[in-house]
Amino acid sequence: MDAYEALVQFLYRAPIGLVQTDLAGTVDMLNPMASNLLMPLARDGALDNLFAVLDAVAPQVRQMAGAFDEPSGVVCDALRVPLDGQGAPGAPQVLSISLMKLDAGRLMAAISDATFDAQREQETLRRRLRSAARTDALTRLPNRAAARDQLQDLLDRRVGKERGKGSAGETFALLFLNCDRFRQINDTLGQSAGDRLLGSISDRLLTALADRMRAGGLAPGARIDPSAGGAGLVARVGGDEFVVLLDGLRHPDEAERLAVRLLDALARPHEVDGAQVACRASIGVLWGGAAEGVAAGDAAGDADNAIRDASIAMIEAKRTGGARHVVFERAMRERAERRADIEAQLRLALAEEQLFVVYQPVVGLNPDGGTDHSAGVEALVRWQHPTRGLVPPFDFIGVAEECGLIDQIGDFVLERACVDFMRWQAVLGPEAPRLMAVNLSRAQLAQPDWTAKVAATLARTGMPAASLQLEVTESLAAQDEQTQLRLHELKALGIKLALDDFGTGYSSLSSLHLLPVDTVKIDRSFVCKADTSHHHRVLIEATVKVAQSLGMNTVAEGIETVGQLDAVRDQHCAKGQGYFFSRPLVSDALVAWIRKQRRA
Ligand code: C2E
Ligand code: MG
Ligand code: MG
Predict the structure, then answer these.
(1) pLDDT at 162
(2) Mutate which of 355, 397, 502, 586 to test ligand 1's pocket (most atoms within 8 Å of Cβ)?
(3) Mean pLDDT score, 420-445
(4) Alpha helices, DSSP H, located in 190-225
(5) Going by CATH, does the domain composed of 352-599 fall within 3.20.20.450?
């Protein structure tokens, strides 16, 4: 066989279809592979003209050939032609067609079955899309969906193992982590700094978990592979929320130790844009203890429930001050459900105006024994619930703070208090209360535009700034710089500040001078023992002395008896408040109370 014949033989048997035609597509030659591939497309079984055969599936080939005016060259290269559904099962689904102009009169087409290639490409694309949908774009960690699936796999596997009685005593922990005050960091440093902080947090978590695994104590084969199933997983499941999933633990202590280790790792300052940023976090730990059933939290097989239970424990950690971990207990879930219920009803209450404000008189205690009934009032919110009756603030302020409704409630109370205050000036003249005290909670101060909002309320209602006193608790006033800044802004408006419930918090008399307050309110728990306990009397006396030396006013809260009144007056406390004078009253009743005092 000579070389030419060998080439012809090769082309004849080539696993690629070859067709030679004239410029109009009329077939001069084709090899068996070409006729195999093209025959299903030939309507009348004739393969006389390539363009005619391809017209139904790829009419552009004819057009491209017609438009090609070079003497020779590539007309089209590896054109993908889907055959949608034509041909028998197992027959090619996609063809790849290349067309060459050989010379002034001839074309050569190379045709191959691209079904497999196309499928593989599509699979790769699908996988890429899928992994993008399961990866958090910011931290490159798995996202909530991915964490959920992996946890579900783990729970399913556990159920299987349990049945097979294998690996008893070995179990998993789910840690739900949320940064404390991340919103504040975002507000102060800007969102892009916040993003970088999240990146730093995710690095720390991964490193801490990897160290933990290297340190041993895990099942053999334990590895961190965030995308595939593994014994450890770190995922970002929300804005500043992460979960850590660990399999193969033997004792709940191990999970708690890991939580402590993660908190330590995060507590070191993070370098963000050249600044050192502190970030504390709260962690909820769910222990999937095999000994106590599938999971301690009744998570019994459901990933969403498990994540929810861990997050409930996290909220508990936050409620008790943050920067700590709390292990999930079943009672927490009931509490959380009750809170969710209150939250839903509170939203309705705001919409249906079930909230109202009552005012408790604050009287001036003259050293000569007289009382000034117009010294001021304190505004206290009430909730008239359609079925539960009157709900005290203690039962809903905390929930409102957690779910963000406190902003709306606070705005409502402030506005109503100012409006009522101005009305009293009109109806009572010189006998109207001279000061309006309104309670403030921490979340309200976190609003970046709060000072401006207060200024707007004052302007709208005509309320003089000097007649408004905002009450903050010790723990709030002693907060970070941001809070201090807000308090100073308020003072700059001319508003007065009072330290509420003094004596119950952490700050002491020695740090009183650090707080930008005008008035100290001595907590009821001291006042109620003012006449019976020497110890409490001494504490009240010391508080009044220190406050006076700093130029601050004092108010004794919760005076219920004449004995308590005499005791606090003896200590030179400037003002008093309590059931002894009056319970909190609705606006009209307060007007009547003041008028009655005048007549008395
Ligand atoms: P607080 O600011 O220390 O208010 C004084 C509380 O003591 C009020 O309870 C008042 O009714 C009660 N009280 C006054 N005198 C006596 C007394 O002689 N004996 C006894 N046993 N209690 C007395 P209330 O209205 O239930 O409010 C409780 C707390 O809820 C308030 O403590 C305050 O921290 C918070 N709060 C009330 N209204 C608001 C509000 O509008 N916004 C915010 N953020 N917190 C509020
Ligand atoms: Mg108060
Ligand atoms: Mg108080």
Answers:
(1) 59
(2) 397
(3) 95
(4) 191-214
(5) yes
The closest residue, in CA terms, to atom 22 on ligand 1 is 558
Sequence ranges of the domains in the chain: 3-117, 138-328, 352-599
pLDDT tens-place string over residues 201-219: 999 999 988 877 766 544 3
Q: What is the pLDDT of residue 218?
A: 44
Minimum mean pLDDT among 64-68, 359-363, 477-481: which range? 477-481
Whether residue 579 has its Cβ less than 6 Å from ligand 1: yes
Q: In this structure, is the dihedral angle defined by the CA atoms of residues 265, 268, 272 and 274, taken in order, positive or negative?
A: negative
Angle between helix 406-428 and 450-461 (nearest 10) = 30
Q: Would you say the pTM of this structure is higher than 0.85? A: no
d(CA 339, CA 337): 5
| Ligand 3 center from residue 441 Cα (angstroms) | 12
Q: How many CA atoms lie within 13 A of 88 on its CB side?
A: 4
The answer, yes or no, to whether residue 86 has pLDDT greater than 70, is no
Residues with CB under 5 A from ligand 2 (ion): 439, 471, 500
pLDDT at position 160 over 90: no
560 lines ligand 1 (CB under 6 A): yes
Whether 138-328 and 352-599 share one fold: the answer is no
Question: Which pLDDT tens digit goes with each residue over 247-258?
Answer: 888 888 889 999
pLDDT confidence of residue 228: 37
Is the CB of residue 473 below 6 angstroms from any atom belonging to ligand 1?
A: no
Residue 435: which of 547, 553, 600 has the closest Cα?
553
Does domain 3-117 match CATH 3.40.50.10320? Answer: no
Give the pLDDT band of residue 74 (cuts 50, 70, 90): very high
CA of 196 to the centre of ligand 3 (A): 41
Residue 262 structure tokens? 């993660």
**CA–CA separation, 281 vs 324, rounded Å?**
7
CATH topology of domain 138-328: Alpha-Beta Plaits (3.30.70)
Number of neighbouring beta carbons within 10 Å of residue 36? 15
Say whether pLDDT at 292 is over 70: no
Mean pLDDT (whole number) for 539-553 = 94
CA of residue 593 to ligand 2 center, whole Å: 20
Maximum alpha-carbon separation in the chain: 134
For ligand 2, the distance from its centroid to the CA atom of residue 315, given in whole angstroms, is 26
Q: What percent of the chain has pLDDT over 70?
A: 91
| Coil, strand or helix at 522 | strand
Copy the structure tokens of residue 16. 């690629």
